[in-house]
Specification:
Elements: E1 2-5, H1 15-22, H2 28-36, E2 40-42, E3 45-46, E4 58-61, H3 73-76, E5 85-88, E6 92-97, H4 109-117, E7 140-146, H5 149-160, E8 165-173, E9 180-189, E10 194-197, E11 204-215, E12 224-231, H6 238-245, E13 267-273, E14 283-285, H7 290-300, H8 304-309
Parallel strand pairs: 7-13
Antiparallel strand pairs: 1-4, 2-3, 2-4, 5-6, 6-7, 8-12, 8-13, 9-10, 9-11, 11-12, 13-14
């Protein structure tokens, strides 16, 4: 026997989908069988899987054992340091992720955020806070987590509508002399864990505006360029793959052909800018990791490049409708 109560983030969702999220221990076939045999009651009456649940609905299930108490992943996670939190709103949380920390899995940022939010939001059967976009494990900087279902929906809609500006800083090999628009059809090879350019069906547009800020002297093989990038699409490893395609892999990015580099690769999600009608058009900026800042100072002998990196630059690429998807 299992008794559940729907929360605010369950409101309007289908019963079968709520049960799949709330009871991951039960096989999907068993959930459908319980529904078919009338063993799932809502407000005391048998309910179909398609039924839309409302906040406060009592769900009673017979013929299935209640899951035993078990420690959640979040309970075993290290705490989320307050210094990592860049901004917190009612529906989303904005984090400055350290380089080398995975977003998903055991010991990940996802677990730390879950532990931080536990007890700070209404209980839900079907919704779990999580990251709303990608950020590679080697990368640092801004990543946004949902706190509520409404926050997840709103942020996803803003990305589809291209109303968010996401700016990165990276250290690329070689000399990039002028502003560019990187436009490629990209495809993900899951077995290799890499992204490639491909004309094959299934390849999707990758679009990135590139602004070189400062380069080491000359255009030798040992040259480096500090670049600011605005991504207009959200492909896995987009910046890393597109830079390598042009002979400018990120310094230290061995996966994409980069040469060894101290503590590299350097890829930092620097800022996230909201539209004027949301959060007052606020721009959230993530401080650079100390190692990144030291390398820039060593290579380029000063911080003028960082001051320029903070300035807002116009996009180099032509807008594309729904380019993120």
């Amino acid at each position: 026997m299992i008794d559940l109560t729907a929360g605010a983030d369950d409101d309007g969702r289908r019963l079968d989908r709520i049960l799949r999220k709330a009871l991951p221990e039960l096989p999907l076939s068993m959930i459908h069988r319980l529904l078919r045999k009338g063993r799932v009651l809502v407000a005391g009456k048998p309910a179909w899987g398609r039924r839309r649940i409302r906040q406060g609905d009592a769900i009673h299930i017979t013929g299935a054992a209640s899951p035993g108490a078990r420690a959640t992943i979040e309970e075993a996670e290290a705490p989320l340091p307050p210094s990592w939190i860049l901004a917190e709103f009612e529906d989303i949380l904005i984090i400055n992720k350290p380089a080398g920390l995975a977003v998903h899995g055991a010991g990940s940022l996802d677990g730390r955020v879950g532990a931080y939010l536990r007890g700070k939001r209404p209980p839900s059967l079907s919704f779990k806070p999580g990251p709303l976009h990608r950020l590679d494990k080697p990368a640092s900087g801004i990543i946004v987590f949902s706190k509520t279902l409404e926050g997840a929906r709103l942020f996803s809609a803003l990305m589809r509508q291209r109303r968010l500006r996401k700016i990165y800083l990276a250290l690329a090999e070689g000399h990039i002399a002028q502003r560019e628009c990187w436009e490629d059809l990209l495809i993900r090879d899951r077995k290799a864990g890499k992204t490639f350019a491909s004309p094959e069906p299934g390849a999707r547009l990758g679009l990135t505006s590139v602004f070189p800020l400062v380069s080491t002297a000359g255009a030798s093989a040992a040259a480096y360029t500090l670049v600011k990038l605005e991504i207009h699409t959200g492909r896995t490893h987009q910046i890393r793959a597109q830079a390598a395609l042009r002979g400018h892999p990120l310094a230290g990015d061995r996966k994409y052909g980069g040469s060894p580099f101290p503590q590299g690769p350097f890829l930092h999600a620097r800022s996230l800018e909201f539209p004027p009608d949301l959060a007052g058009g606020r721009r959230i900026t993530a401080p650079l990791p100390a190692a990144f800042r030291r390398q820039i100072a060593l290579l380029f002998r000063g911080s003028a490049a960082l001051r320029e990196a903070a300035e807002r630059a116009p996009s180099q690429c032509a807008p594309r409708q729904n380019a993120l998807y």
